[in-house]
Write the structure tokens for this entry.
Amino acid sequence: MHETVIASSLFKIVTEEVIKQNKDLCVDEIYLKIGVLSCIEPQTLEGCFEILAEEEPITKNAKLFIERIPLTGFCHDCQKIVSINKRHFVCPVCQSPNVDWQGGNEMQISSIKVHEK
């Protein structure tokens, strides 16, 4: 269950950044982008983050929003740029396995919404 470690790291990054900006801020929302191949289960990550967030006043009511980033690639058979949202590694257009896939492992904080205490 590596989501616990990821949630802990995410929590640390967010709280340190918010405190660095202004000690009188509270976190409302955190937006993440996570690639399809990241092997991160969004619901588990959300649950782990909720438990950690409850322990700190600046994150007590914070909500985590996760956007899944599709895997993109170039199909050599149909000559199209394609994307998939599940780990089914064939071209969704022509069903060819002859696709050069790009990315899919990314995880980034896209934004943090805060308010003053």
Observations:
- Strands lie at 25-35, 63-69, 71-75, 81-84, 99-102, 107-116.
- The chain is about 25% helix and 35% strand.
- The longest strand covers residues 25-35.
